[in-house]
Protein 1
Amino acid sequence: MSDRDGTIWYDGELVPWREATTHVLTHSLHYGLAVFEGLRAYETERGPAIFRLREHTERLLNSAKIYMMPIAYSLETLMEAQKAVVRANNLTSCYIRPIAFYGSEKMGVSPRGAKVHVAIAAWPWGAYLGEEGLQKGIRVKTSSFQRQHVNVTMPRAKVASTYANSILANLEVTSQGYDEALLLDTMGFVAEGAGENLFLVKNGQLIEPEIACALTGITRDTVHHIARELGIPLVSRRLTRDDVYIADEAFFTGTAAEVTPIRELDDRVIGSGSRGPITEKIQARYFEIVNGRAPEYDHWLTYV
Ligand code: PMP
């Protein structure tokens, strides 16, 4: 991230942006074990609010538990710290990145003996797949790289090493001019995007791939609630890539990607080739909720 003013929470203290540095021999840089989160704070009438702060912080601690990383801070402390970072940087809407990683006390595969550090940064970040993508939909290609098997990495953990797999897939398809990659699992069934979960719409029904090797997205869970509220039936089942080709609508979900329509997969136009009507309804409701315009979901907003 380029040089700038600002404040980062680092091991319990708010420090100037430029001083939040770490040694090049930090263990996580060499062996890839760092657990992290991505959250968004949105501008609301009552000031900036972090969306589903508790759920993201719980997932961070669960990721650490899966990888046996002892984090010295409680759920409450980490939640307060994330609020403090948004406040300290005077941000009205932003992306928030907490990360726990091993320090430079030792080398070698085992992290035993290295200290776990926690840092939290926040910065403004617009639509991850572009404003136009949110409105018109994006072009997706199935990657030749498969989503890592459930016994290769741990799919419930949001861990840096998994993103090497995502990066291979994303670079492969974006270098061919597509916007984002879809990954299949090692059996050949649809798993997820490089940084998003997938939903299809077929005959008025919402369909999602079984979650086995994909991240259990918090946006995905939000969409489950929205579907229930709008009376749209939801099924989870194994999906093949041609299920996506013949869907009426498809969209990606993620904190960064929000609800992004998919207009093409592997050069097949999906449905009408633009944002479908059910996707549009779900997307509109999503933005009402995150922007504090849906009082029934106020419990998901933490005002900073
Ligand atoms: N899958 C992957 C691989 C991701 O990186 C993300 C983004 N965190 C998601 C799914 C969506 O998760 P969430 O909705 O919790 O951001």
Protein 2
Amino acid sequence: MEALLNERLGLYCPYIEKSLEEYVGLYCNYNLAECLPKAMLYSLEAGGKRIRPVLALEICRLLSGSYEAAKPAACAIEMIHTFSLIHDDLPAMDDDDLRRGKPSCHKAFDEAVAILAGDALSTLPYLVIANDDKLSDNCKAKLVSILSSETMNMIAGQIIDVENEGKAISEEILLELHSKKTCGLLRACCKMGAVCAGADENTVALFEEYAEYLGLAFQIIDDILDIIGDEKSLGKPVGSDAQSDKTTYATLVGVENARKKAFELTQKATTILDNFDDCDFLKQLTKYLLERNS
Ligand code: IPE
Ligand code: IPE
Ligand code: MG
Ligand code: MG
Ligand code: MG
């Protein structure tokens, strides 16, 4: 990995992890429901690449000079993402028993607790944003609007995903599905990072476009890794999509063509970054996400 990438991930990831723990500690003290914060922290702390919060922090830094200004937004998006993974693994959905290298939440606890931990992680983000003492009211309103609308898109994408199991779908529908289920949260974190920096609408729109290309490439790589990846490095089961009989970009056009498509989308994402100064880290991160094996 390139030096700058390592260095800045080494700064951002521990910062995000410490902040997530603080927010759960602050807002989830329930004497008679101790397993709720336990299950939330179990999934939050299991690891993960932290791509979404890193993007929020970095885009804010890039546009204003301070990554700390995006802390509530970064933690909010990682909570929503973790909620989406907990529910995605449930028997009624992808039925996967391994997540982030550990038993999935419903395996470590039980299904009811996993559903409720997901519910809590889908709600706490709004408390974190609303109660922040540094963000302006105007900024809070924009963050809530972005986060809720893109989360709705993610959920709509998950519905399209599960409803099409076992069906042959066209490339057009598949990309629409990806644009909702995966690009939704990536658009959210990129736009929220820009909003926390007080960016204008044109700048927010450029990062939205960047996130769209990045997210499409990201899901194609995820689908490829589900076929040719390694369970140990992925920290989740390989072959889950085949097991559920899903049409993925890789099953539709083959692994090699899918990789080409991900490469093209990554190039489009990178070209958008050329509009900004000081974006070497974002370019390295974008490239790493194409080449990743986890
Ligand atoms: C997995 O996301 C779900 C998809 C959108 C493909 P990540 O690959 O970012 O998962 P973590 O956060 O690193 O575990
Ligand atoms: C899920 O896509 C994306 C979400 C919104 C959680 P996948 O079902 O392919 O994600 P993984 O492979 O289980 O992480
Ligand atoms: Mg899924
Ligand atoms: Mg899944
Ligand atoms: Mg997958």
